[in-house]
Design goal:
heterodimer; A: mainly alpha; Cytochrome Bc1 Complex, Chain D, domain 2; 2 domains; three-stranded mixed β-sheet; 13 helices; B: Immunoglobulin-like; five-stranded mixed β-sheet
Chain lengths: 258, 106
Protein backbone atom coordinates (compact mmCIF):
# COMPACT_ATOMS: atom_id res chain seq x y z
CA UNK A 1 0.00 0.00 0.00
CA UNK A 2 2.81 2.43 0.82
CA UNK A 3 4.41 1.63 -2.54
CA UNK A 4 1.16 2.46 -4.27
CA UNK A 5 1.02 5.70 -2.31
CA UNK A 6 4.56 6.52 -3.32
CA UNK A 7 3.84 5.91 -7.00
CA UNK A 8 0.72 8.02 -6.80
CA UNK A 9 2.70 10.79 -5.18
CA UNK A 10 5.38 10.55 -7.82
CA UNK A 11 2.77 10.85 -10.56
CA UNK A 12 1.24 13.89 -8.87
CA UNK A 13 4.62 15.51 -8.39
CA UNK A 14 5.52 15.08 -12.04
CA UNK A 15 2.34 16.82 -13.14
CA UNK A 16 2.88 19.74 -10.77
CA UNK A 17 4.87 22.78 -11.69
CA UNK A 18 8.58 22.64 -11.02
CA UNK A 19 8.94 25.74 -8.84
CA UNK A 20 7.35 25.74 -5.38
CA UNK A 21 5.36 28.83 -4.54
CA UNK A 22 4.77 29.57 -0.87
CA UNK A 23 1.18 29.42 0.37
CA UNK A 24 -0.41 32.89 0.64
CA UNK A 25 -1.53 34.00 4.12
CA UNK A 26 -5.26 33.78 3.34
CA UNK A 27 -4.94 30.19 2.11
CA UNK A 28 -3.09 28.81 5.12
CA UNK A 29 -4.83 25.84 6.73
CA UNK A 30 -3.66 24.09 9.83
CA UNK A 31 -3.85 20.30 9.92
CA UNK A 32 -6.79 20.76 12.28
CA UNK A 33 -8.97 22.20 9.53
CA UNK A 34 -8.18 19.33 7.18
CA UNK A 35 -9.08 16.50 9.55
CA UNK A 36 -12.40 14.78 10.19
CA UNK A 37 -15.12 16.08 12.49
CA UNK A 38 -14.55 13.14 14.86
CA UNK A 39 -10.82 13.76 15.23
CA UNK A 40 -11.45 17.47 15.75
CA UNK A 41 -13.94 16.66 18.52
CA UNK A 42 -11.32 14.43 20.13
CA UNK A 43 -8.78 17.27 20.16
CA UNK A 44 -11.23 19.90 21.41
CA UNK A 45 -12.39 17.98 24.49
CA UNK A 46 -9.60 17.77 27.07
CA UNK A 47 -11.36 14.75 28.58
CA UNK A 48 -11.12 12.90 25.24
CA UNK A 49 -7.75 14.19 24.02
CA UNK A 50 -5.25 11.47 25.00
CA UNK A 51 -2.44 14.07 25.05
CA UNK A 52 -4.04 15.37 28.27
CA UNK A 53 -2.42 12.38 30.01
CA UNK A 54 0.98 13.73 28.98
CA UNK A 55 0.04 17.27 30.04
CA UNK A 56 -0.87 15.97 33.50
CA UNK A 57 2.44 14.10 33.71
CA UNK A 58 4.22 17.29 32.66
CA UNK A 59 2.48 19.28 35.38
CA UNK A 60 3.68 16.72 37.95
CA UNK A 61 7.25 16.79 36.61
CA UNK A 62 7.24 20.59 36.63
CA UNK A 63 7.15 20.65 40.43
CA UNK A 64 9.38 17.62 41.09
CA UNK A 65 12.87 18.39 42.37
CA UNK A 66 15.56 16.59 40.41
CA UNK A 67 19.28 16.46 39.66
CA UNK A 68 22.30 17.34 41.80
CA UNK A 69 20.91 20.86 42.26
CA UNK A 70 17.68 19.38 43.72
CA UNK A 71 15.68 21.98 41.88
CA UNK A 72 12.31 21.74 40.16
CA UNK A 73 11.31 23.69 37.04
CA UNK A 74 8.86 25.55 39.28
CA UNK A 75 11.65 26.73 41.62
CA UNK A 76 12.95 29.06 38.90
CA UNK A 77 9.99 29.52 36.59
CA UNK A 78 7.13 29.53 39.10
CA UNK A 79 3.67 28.72 37.84
CA UNK A 80 3.98 27.49 34.26
CA UNK A 81 0.49 28.78 33.46
CA UNK A 82 1.93 32.30 33.66
CA UNK A 83 5.64 31.94 33.00
CA UNK A 84 5.38 29.53 30.04
CA UNK A 85 2.65 31.45 28.20
CA UNK A 86 3.75 31.85 24.59
CA UNK A 87 7.11 30.12 25.07
CA UNK A 88 6.30 27.25 22.70
CA UNK A 89 5.03 29.75 20.12
CA UNK A 90 8.47 31.41 20.13
CA UNK A 91 10.56 28.24 19.69
CA UNK A 92 12.90 27.30 18.05
CA UNK A 93 14.63 30.35 19.51
CA UNK A 94 18.20 31.57 19.25
CA UNK A 95 20.49 30.37 22.05
CA UNK A 96 23.53 32.65 22.47
CA UNK A 97 25.50 29.90 24.27
CA UNK A 98 25.24 27.49 21.36
CA UNK A 99 25.20 30.19 18.71
CA UNK A 100 22.23 28.63 16.95
CA UNK A 101 18.48 28.17 17.35
CA UNK A 102 17.28 25.36 19.62
CA UNK A 103 13.92 23.64 19.87
CA UNK A 104 11.65 23.56 22.91
CA UNK A 105 12.84 20.03 23.73
CA UNK A 106 16.48 21.13 23.52
CA UNK A 107 15.70 24.11 25.76
CA UNK A 108 14.15 21.80 28.36
CA UNK A 109 17.22 19.57 28.25
CA UNK A 110 19.57 22.57 28.45
CA UNK A 111 17.75 23.65 31.61
CA UNK A 112 18.06 20.14 33.00
CA UNK A 113 21.78 19.72 32.39
CA UNK A 114 22.85 23.28 33.27
CA UNK A 115 20.46 24.43 36.00
CA UNK A 116 19.17 21.20 37.54
CA UNK A 117 22.41 19.28 36.90
CA UNK A 118 20.40 16.26 35.88
CA UNK A 119 21.02 13.97 32.90
CA UNK A 120 19.36 15.09 29.67
CA UNK A 121 16.10 13.32 28.83
CA UNK A 122 16.12 11.08 25.76
CA UNK A 123 14.28 12.26 22.64
CA UNK A 124 10.73 10.86 22.54
CA UNK A 125 10.95 9.73 26.18
CA UNK A 126 7.71 10.00 28.12
CA UNK A 127 9.22 12.62 30.45
CA UNK A 128 10.53 14.93 27.73
CA UNK A 129 7.28 14.73 25.74
CA UNK A 130 5.27 15.32 28.91
CA UNK A 131 7.24 18.45 29.83
CA UNK A 132 7.12 19.73 26.25
CA UNK A 133 3.38 19.06 26.02
CA UNK A 134 2.79 20.82 29.35
CA UNK A 135 4.80 23.87 28.28
CA UNK A 136 3.22 23.92 24.79
CA UNK A 137 -0.26 23.69 26.35
CA UNK A 138 0.30 27.13 27.89
CA UNK A 139 0.55 28.65 24.39
CA UNK A 140 -2.76 27.28 23.16
CA UNK A 141 -4.57 29.88 21.07
CA UNK A 142 -1.56 32.19 20.87
CA UNK A 143 -0.13 33.06 17.45
CA UNK A 144 3.17 31.52 16.38
CA UNK A 145 5.73 34.27 16.80
CA UNK A 146 9.31 33.14 16.19
CA UNK A 147 11.92 35.87 15.93
CA UNK A 148 13.56 36.40 12.55
CA UNK A 149 16.59 38.66 12.86
CA UNK A 150 20.18 38.85 11.70
CA UNK A 151 21.16 36.01 14.03
CA UNK A 152 18.45 33.55 12.99
CA UNK A 153 18.13 34.47 9.30
CA UNK A 154 20.93 32.12 8.12
CA UNK A 155 19.24 29.20 9.91
CA UNK A 156 15.83 30.08 8.45
CA UNK A 157 17.45 30.09 5.00
CA UNK A 158 19.08 26.73 5.68
CA UNK A 159 15.69 25.35 6.77
CA UNK A 160 14.04 26.68 3.61
CA UNK A 161 16.76 25.07 1.50
CA UNK A 162 16.12 21.72 3.23
CA UNK A 163 12.37 22.15 2.67
CA UNK A 164 12.86 22.73 -1.04
CA UNK A 165 15.67 20.24 -1.66
CA UNK A 166 14.76 17.02 -3.46
CA UNK A 167 16.03 14.05 -1.53
CA UNK A 168 15.68 10.30 -1.06
CA UNK A 169 15.15 7.55 -3.60
CA UNK A 170 11.82 9.10 -4.60
CA UNK A 171 13.66 12.38 -5.24
CA UNK A 172 10.96 14.49 -3.59
CA UNK A 173 11.18 17.73 -1.64
CA UNK A 174 8.94 18.66 1.30
CA UNK A 175 7.60 21.56 -0.81
CA UNK A 176 6.40 19.30 -3.60
CA UNK A 177 3.80 17.78 -1.28
CA UNK A 178 3.15 20.48 1.28
CA UNK A 179 3.30 23.63 -0.89
CA UNK A 180 2.00 22.28 -4.19
CA UNK A 181 -0.23 19.29 -3.45
CA UNK A 182 -1.83 20.14 -0.11
CA UNK A 183 -5.52 19.32 0.16
CA UNK A 184 -5.21 16.43 -2.30
CA UNK A 185 -5.22 12.78 -1.39
CA UNK A 186 -2.15 10.67 -0.71
CA UNK A 187 -3.81 7.25 -0.67
CA UNK A 188 -6.39 7.58 2.15
CA UNK A 189 -4.96 10.74 3.67
CA UNK A 190 -5.31 14.43 2.93
CA UNK A 191 -1.92 16.07 2.37
CA UNK A 192 -1.63 18.89 4.95
CA UNK A 193 0.26 22.15 4.54
CA UNK A 194 2.75 21.13 7.23
CA UNK A 195 2.17 23.92 9.73
CA UNK A 196 3.61 22.88 13.11
CA UNK A 197 0.85 24.42 15.25
CA UNK A 198 0.15 21.51 17.55
CA UNK A 199 3.44 19.84 18.49
CA UNK A 200 4.09 17.81 20.51
CA UNK A 201 0.89 16.06 19.46
CA UNK A 202 -0.97 12.80 19.81
CA UNK A 203 -0.90 11.02 16.50
CA UNK A 204 -3.45 8.25 16.13
CA UNK A 205 -1.09 6.32 13.87
CA UNK A 206 1.65 6.43 16.50
CA UNK A 207 -0.79 5.66 19.34
CA UNK A 208 1.24 8.10 21.41
CA UNK A 209 2.50 11.66 21.67
CA UNK A 210 5.45 12.54 19.43
CA UNK A 211 7.63 15.52 18.60
CA UNK A 212 7.89 17.40 15.32
CA UNK A 213 11.30 15.78 14.84
CA UNK A 214 9.63 12.36 14.88
CA UNK A 215 7.20 13.58 12.24
CA UNK A 216 10.11 14.80 10.07
CA UNK A 217 11.86 11.46 10.36
CA UNK A 218 8.66 9.67 9.36
CA UNK A 219 8.31 11.87 6.27
CA UNK A 220 11.98 11.35 5.34
CA UNK A 221 11.59 7.59 5.59
CA UNK A 222 8.47 7.92 3.43
CA UNK A 223 10.43 9.49 0.59
CA UNK A 224 13.11 6.80 1.05
CA UNK A 225 15.69 9.24 2.40
CA UNK A 226 17.91 8.42 5.34
CA UNK A 227 16.44 10.41 8.25
CA UNK A 228 18.63 12.85 10.15
CA UNK A 229 19.23 12.07 13.82
CA UNK A 230 16.95 13.60 16.46
CA UNK A 231 18.10 17.14 17.15
CA UNK A 232 20.32 17.30 14.05
CA UNK A 233 20.96 20.90 12.89
CA UNK A 234 19.13 20.16 9.61
CA UNK A 235 15.95 19.18 11.47
CA UNK A 236 16.16 22.09 13.90
CA UNK A 237 16.57 24.54 11.00
CA UNK A 238 13.66 22.90 9.21
CA UNK A 239 11.56 23.23 12.36
CA UNK A 240 12.53 26.91 12.56
CA UNK A 241 11.64 27.50 8.92
CA UNK A 242 8.23 25.83 9.30
CA UNK A 243 7.50 27.98 12.34
CA UNK A 244 8.44 31.09 10.35
CA UNK A 245 6.27 29.86 7.48
CA UNK A 246 3.34 29.46 9.90
CA UNK A 247 3.83 32.78 11.68
CA UNK A 248 0.57 34.23 12.98
CA UNK A 249 -1.28 30.91 13.02
CA UNK A 250 -2.74 29.98 16.42
CA UNK A 251 -1.11 27.20 18.44
CA UNK A 252 -3.35 24.23 19.24
CA UNK A 253 -0.86 22.09 21.15
CA UNK A 254 -1.10 19.40 22.24
CA UNK A 255 -3.13 18.51 19.18
CA UNK A 256 -4.55 15.26 17.86
CA UNK A 257 -3.73 14.27 14.28
CA UNK A 258 -4.61 11.19 12.24
CA UNK B 1 2.66 9.33 35.97
CA UNK B 2 -0.99 10.03 35.29
CA UNK B 3 -3.04 6.86 35.27
CA UNK B 4 -6.53 7.83 34.29
CA UNK B 5 -8.69 10.82 33.59
CA UNK B 6 -12.31 10.64 34.80
CA UNK B 7 -15.03 13.04 33.81
CA UNK B 8 -18.23 12.84 35.87
CA UNK B 9 -20.63 15.75 36.48
CA UNK B 10 -20.20 17.02 40.05
CA UNK B 11 -23.92 17.37 40.61
CA UNK B 12 -27.05 16.13 38.90
CA UNK B 13 -30.81 16.11 39.32
CA UNK B 14 -32.39 12.86 40.50
CA UNK B 15 -33.37 10.76 37.50
CA UNK B 16 -31.14 12.70 35.11
CA UNK B 17 -29.09 10.76 32.56
CA UNK B 18 -25.44 11.59 33.10
CA UNK B 19 -22.49 10.96 30.79
CA UNK B 20 -19.30 9.47 32.17
CA UNK B 21 -16.01 9.71 30.28
CA UNK B 22 -12.90 7.72 31.14
CA UNK B 23 -9.47 7.90 29.56
CA UNK B 24 -6.74 5.57 30.80
CA UNK B 25 -3.03 5.57 30.07
CA UNK B 26 -2.05 2.18 28.64
CA UNK B 27 0.04 1.02 25.62
CA UNK B 28 -2.39 -1.81 24.64
CA UNK B 29 0.38 -3.88 23.05
CA UNK B 30 -1.43 -6.42 20.85
CA UNK B 31 0.98 -9.36 21.14
CA UNK B 32 0.98 -9.71 17.36
CA UNK B 33 3.91 -7.40 16.68
CA UNK B 34 7.57 -8.28 16.45
CA UNK B 35 10.72 -6.29 17.09
CA UNK B 36 13.04 -5.37 14.22
CA UNK B 37 15.03 -8.50 15.10
CA UNK B 38 11.96 -10.73 14.81
CA UNK B 39 11.36 -11.43 18.48
CA UNK B 40 7.67 -11.37 19.37
CA UNK B 41 6.54 -8.52 21.64
CA UNK B 42 4.40 -10.08 24.40
CA UNK B 43 0.80 -9.01 24.73
CA UNK B 44 0.11 -6.29 27.30
CA UNK B 45 -3.49 -5.12 27.26
CA UNK B 46 -6.26 -4.12 29.64
CA UNK B 47 -8.71 -7.04 29.81
CA UNK B 48 -11.65 -5.64 31.76
CA UNK B 49 -13.13 -2.38 32.89
CA UNK B 50 -15.80 -2.17 35.56
CA UNK B 51 -17.70 0.83 36.90
CA UNK B 52 -19.69 0.64 40.12
CA UNK B 53 -22.10 3.22 41.51
CA UNK B 54 -22.31 3.01 45.32
CA UNK B 55 -21.21 -0.61 45.06
CA UNK B 56 -23.60 -1.63 42.28
CA UNK B 57 -22.07 -2.55 38.96
CA UNK B 58 -23.49 -0.30 36.24
CA UNK B 59 -21.05 -0.84 33.36
CA UNK B 60 -18.56 -3.50 32.35
CA UNK B 61 -16.41 -3.84 29.25
CA UNK B 62 -14.10 -6.53 27.95
CA UNK B 63 -11.15 -5.18 26.02
CA UNK B 64 -9.33 -6.98 23.23
CA UNK B 65 -6.03 -6.60 21.31
CA UNK B 66 -7.63 -4.55 18.52
CA UNK B 67 -8.47 -1.70 20.89
CA UNK B 68 -6.21 1.33 20.53
CA UNK B 69 -3.72 2.55 23.12
CA UNK B 70 -5.05 4.77 25.93
CA UNK B 71 -8.63 3.42 25.77
CA UNK B 72 -11.35 6.09 25.98
CA UNK B 73 -14.72 4.80 27.18
CA UNK B 74 -17.89 6.88 27.36
CA UNK B 75 -21.13 5.58 28.82
CA UNK B 76 -24.17 6.90 30.62
CA UNK B 77 -26.22 6.09 33.66
CA UNK B 78 -29.17 7.48 35.60
CA UNK B 79 -28.29 9.62 38.60
CA UNK B 80 -30.19 7.93 41.44
CA UNK B 81 -28.44 8.99 44.67
CA UNK B 82 -25.41 10.89 45.93
CA UNK B 83 -22.30 8.84 46.40
CA UNK B 84 -19.24 7.46 44.68
CA UNK B 85 -18.59 6.07 41.27
CA UNK B 86 -15.58 3.81 41.23
CA UNK B 87 -13.70 2.65 38.19
CA UNK B 88 -11.48 -0.37 37.92
CA UNK B 89 -9.22 -1.47 35.08
CA UNK B 90 -7.45 -4.83 35.16
CA UNK B 91 -5.13 -6.35 32.60
CA UNK B 92 -2.06 -8.32 31.66
CA UNK B 93 1.10 -8.32 33.77
CA UNK B 94 -0.89 -7.60 36.91
CA UNK B 95 -2.16 -4.25 35.68
CA UNK B 96 -4.70 -2.91 38.15
CA UNK B 97 -5.89 0.64 38.50
CA UNK B 98 -8.72 2.06 40.58
CA UNK B 99 -10.10 5.56 40.49
CA UNK B 100 -13.22 7.12 41.96
CA UNK B 101 -15.36 10.20 41.57
CA UNK B 102 -18.01 11.73 43.80
CA UNK B 103 -21.42 12.84 42.59
CA UNK B 104 -24.11 14.88 44.38
CA UNK B 105 -27.68 14.14 43.41
CA UNK B 106 -30.35 16.63 44.46
Amino acid sequence: MSRLAALLLLALATVASAVAAEIPLAERRSGYELMSRETRAMQDDDAANPATLWVLDGAALWTRKTGAAARACADCHGDARDSMKGVAARHPAFDPVRGRPITLEQRINACRTERQQAPALAWESRELLALAAYVARQSRGMPIDVAVDARTQPFVDAGRATFQRRQGQLNLSCAQCHDEQWGRQLAGNVIPQAHPTGYPLYRLEWQTVGSLQRRFRGCLTGIRAEPYEYGAPELVDLELFLKVRARGMPMDAPAVRP
Amino acid sequence: MAGALINVPERARRGEIIEIKTLVSHPMETGYRRTQLGAPIPRDIIRTFVCTYNGTEIFRAELHPAIAANPFLVFSTVATESGTLSFQWTGDNGFALTESAAIRVE
